[in-house]
Amino acid sequence: MTAPGVCMSILNARHSKDGRRTVTNPEKFLNQDYQQLKQYCLIRRVRYIDDMFPPDKTSIGEDILTPSDLNRVQWLRPAKIVSNPSFVVDGVSRFDFGQGMVGDCWLLASIGALTFQDHIFQQVVPLEQTFDDDDYCGLFHFRFWRFGRWVDVIIDDKLPTINGRLIFVHSKDLTEFWPALLEKAYAKVCGSYSDMNAGTPAEALVDFTGGVHMCVNLSHPPPNLWDLMLRAGQSKSLMGCGTHQGETSANTVLPNGLVQGHAYTVTGVKQLVSQGTVVNLVRLWNPWGKGEWNGDWSDQSPLWQTVSPQDREMCREVADDGEFWMLMEDFCKFYSELDICCLCPEFLDGSSSSHWNTSFYEGRWVAGTTAGGCMNYMDSFWTNPQYRVKIESLLGDCAKTQGGKNMLVSLMQKPDKRNRRLVENLYIGFSVFEVPDEYKREMGKFPQSFFKTNRPVVQTKPYMDAREVMEFMMLKPGDYLIVPSTYGPNETASFLLTILAKAETHVHENSGGHNHEHKHAEEPMAVENGGNDDNKKTLFRQFSDKYEEVDAEQLQKLLNENILKGDLKAGGFSVDACRSMVALMDTSVTGKLNSQEFVRLWKKVVTYKDIFFRTDVSRTGTLSLSELRNAIMAIGMRVSDDMLNLMALRYGASTGHMTLESFISLVLRFECMYSKYLYNKSKQYFLQLIKIKFKLQLSIV
After folding, report:
1. 3-class SS string, 513-532
2. pLDDT tens across 101-128, in order?
3. Model pTM?
4. Which residues make Cβ contacts (< 8 Å) with residue 699, sequence separation at least 6?
5. Burial of 492 (0-12, 13-18, 19+ CB in 10 A)
6. What percent of the chain stands above pLDDT 90?
7. Could you report the per-residue pLDDT of 279-307, keeping only the tens digit for each?
8. pLDDT for residue 695
9. Which run of H or of E encompasses 241?
10. Does domain 349-509 have CATH number 1.20.58.100?
11. Contact, 342 vs 232, CB < 8 A?
12. How many CB atoms lie within 10 A of CB 581?
C-alpha cells in the first residue's frame, strides 16, 4: 500500500537532510529510475517509450499548433530523422540551435547562457549519453533544480516532427540532438510543450543552477549596474534579459531590429575606448539564432571604426547569428529586466573572500491558520509563518565599510498544479522587523500587538505575482523577524524562503516547533473543574458494569448525555472517538476505564471545554482555525505551523471550523504525547519521534 501523503513528506524531509535531492544524488522525477529502466531496456533489447510523457497530442498540449498541423505530427527517434544522429557534435555552443514553433525563447535564452559554463552545463546535461548501439535504448535523462531540490528527469527520444523535420527547437547541425532532447525533458517538467509558452529567463536560469538569483529593474537601474554585470561575468554567472512587452503582440520585430516581448541572453560585457571616451558595451544573443539590433555598436555600425584594431578584431563579428553589441545606456532603455544567476553569491559584492551563509526553509500558507495576508490585514498578519534571524557579527568587507549590503532574502512560491500554464501565481512579499529588547526572549509566534507597535525595516514593495521576489539589504548585528505572506489573507500556497547572509547568523522558524532551544510554554489557563470527585464517581457508577468499569459505548453515553449535554454541536462523540479516549486514559490496560481513570478524563474534558469556549471569541460555538493556536497555547503547549496545519487538516471541518468534540479528541491525543516528551531526557530527539508519530496518526486515523 502506498504510504500516506504525510508519511511521504516525513520520509522526503529525511532524505533531503541525508543528501538526497542534491545535484549528485537527485530525486527521481515521477519516481522513474534512470538506471533501472535503462538496464531493463538493454537486457530485453527494447526501445524505451515513456508512458509518463507519451509521444502523442497530450504531450504537445493546446494552442501552439493548428488542428491540421497537430494531426500531421509524427513522433520520430533521431535515427529515423537522420542516418547518423549524435548527442553532441564538436562541443556545445549558443549557436548550435534555433527556436521552433513554441514560445519558449525564455528557456532557450537560458540554455544559451548555460553553454558558457561547462561545469554547470554538465550538471544539467549528462554528456556520457550516446546513440551508440551498445549503450542506446532510446532513453535519456537531464537534471533540473525545482523549488529546493534537484530532480532527474527521464524521457524517451521520440521527437515531434512534421514532414521529417523537428517542429520545436532544432540544431543548426541536423545530426545534433542535445537541444531537442533537453527541451523535451523541460517540457515534461512543465507538463507539455505548450506549457512552456511564455516566461522569463529567471525561471529557467534558477532551474538550471539552483543558485543565487538577482533581478534588476532596468527602468530604474542601480548606479553600480555596470560593476555588477562585470562581476557577474567574471564569476561565471548566467545572465538573461527581456525586452518590453509594448502595446502590440509579442514577437513583433521593431525598426531597431529588437524583438518586442522577447528573451535574450547576455553573453558578455566589454569596456572600450572610442575617440578618447570610455564606453561600456553589452553583448546579447537572440535565441531565434538570427535577427539583431541595428543601432549604435551593431555589426554594421561605423562606431567600430573609432576603436583600436585590436578591440575591433576581438569584439566585432559581422554575421546574422543573432548576437550583437549595444551601448549600456541603450540596453537599459530597450530592455525591462536583467536576471543574474550564479552558483555562488560573490557577484553580489565582488568580495570573493567573503563567507556567505545560506539557509533554506520550506513553508506553507494555509487558509484559516497560517495565511494572514499582508500588513493591511493587521488582525491576521501575525498568523503568517515567522522566521527569527540573529546576526552576531559582520564578515568580510561589511565589517570594514559603512552601508555595504550583507543579506539577500528570496521568497519563491511553489506551484500547486502539474501543468505550468494552469499555475496562477499569488501576489507575494515579505517584511523584515528588528526585534526590540523586550521581545528577544519571546518564544513562539510574535503576537498581533508586536506588529501594531513595530514597523518593518525592509519590505518588498509592491507585492508581485511572480514566482520569486527578493530584496538585497544591509542589516546591522541584532535580532530580526522575517514574515513572508501573500497579499490577501486565506490564500493557500507553499513557498521556499532562502536567506543568504554575509554575517555570522542563526536562523530558525519562529512558530513554536523549532529545536534551537527548548523552554516550557506558558502556564495553562486557569479553569474551574466544577463538582467534587465523589459526585463524579456517583455518576460513573450509574453507567459502569459490575466491575465498576465503563467501555467505549458506556463512555459515549456519559459524555454525550450527561457531562457535555447541550454543549455539543456535531451530534456528540462517536464510538470510535470514545474508543480512542479509553485507549489514551486506560493506564491499567484493561480496555475499559475504572473510576479513577474516568474522573481524570472528566477533569480534562471539562478543562478543555472551558478553554474552548473562552477562546471562542466569535461566540459561534465552534473554534475558527485561526483561534486554534490560542486554544492550544491556553492549555500550556506550543505547536509549530506544520503541526497546527496538520491538526486543522485532520480535526477541522470543511467549513474551516472545529467543533468541541473534535477539539477535545485532538487535545487529549496531543497532550498524551507532549507529556511523554517533557519527561524524556533526550528531548530534541524524542520530540521528533513524537512529531512523526503524531503525523502518522493524523494521516491514518
Report:
1. CCCCCCCCCCCCCCCCCCCC
2. 888 889 999 999 999 888 899 999 999 9
3. 0.80
4. 4, 5, 6, 7, 650
5. middle
6. 45
7. 999 999 998 888 899 999 998 899 999 99
8. 54
9. strand 238-243
10. no
11. yes
12. 23
Look at the block and give the residue holding cell 537531464: 142
Paired with 357 in beta bridges are 501
> How many Å apart are CA 284 and CA 266, to the nearest integer?
5
Q: Does pLDDT of 348 surpass 50?
A: yes
Respond yes or no on whether the N-terminal peptide bond of residue 462 is cis (omega within 30° of 0).
yes
The pLDDT tens digits of the residues spanning 417-453 come to 889 999 999 999 999 999 999 998 887 889 889 999 9
Question: Cβ distance 569 to 579 under 8 Å?
Answer: no
Q: How far apart are alpha carbons 208 and 39 in whole angstroms? A: 27
Question: Is residue 74 classed as helix, strand or coil in its secondary structure?
Answer: strand
Residue 359 pLDDT > 80: yes
C-alpha cell at 279: 564606453
How many Å apart are CA 129 and CA 34, to the nearest integer? Answer: 12
> What is the bridge-based pairing of β-strands 74-76 and 27-28?
unpaired
Q: For residues 78 and 88, give the distance between their C-alpha atoms in angstroms, rounded to a whole number.
A: 13
Beta strands in 329-427 (DSSP E): 335-342, 357-365, 387-394, 407-414
Distance, in Å, from the CA atom of 65 to the CA atom of 268, rounded to the nearest integer, reads 35
CATH number 1.10.238.10 given to 533-700: yes
| Residue 189 contacts residue 418 (beta carbons within 8 Å) | no
Looking at residues 131-147, what average pLDDT do you find?
A: 93
- Number of Cβ within a 10 Å radius of residue 265: 29
C-alpha grid cell, residue 95: 549557436
- The C-alpha atoms of residue 240 and residue 267 are separated, in whole angstroms, by 9
Q: Is the dihedral of CA 208, 209, 211, 214 positive or negative?
A: negative
Partner residues linked to 156 by β-bridges: 139
Please tell me the least confidently modeled range out of 101-115, 226-240, 558-572, 573-587.
Answer: 558-572
Cα distance between residue 379 and residue 617, in whole Å: 13
- pLDDT above 90 for 317: no
Whether 250 shows a pLDDT value over 90: the answer reads no
Catalytic residues: 105, 262, 286
Sketch the domain layout of the chain as residue ranges: 32-200, 212-342, 349-509, 533-700
Cα–Cα distance for residue pair 332/499, rounded to 1 Å:
28
Please say whether the beta carbons of 342 and 235 come within 8 A: yes
CA distance 582 to 568: 20
| Alpha carbons 580 and 651: distance in angstroms, whole number | 14
> Which ranges constitute the DSSP H helices of 316-357?
328-334
Cell numbers at 637, concatenated: 503547549
**Dihedral angle of Cα 38, 39, 41, 43, to the nearest 10 degrees:** 160
Q: Which CATH class is domain 212-342?
A: alpha beta
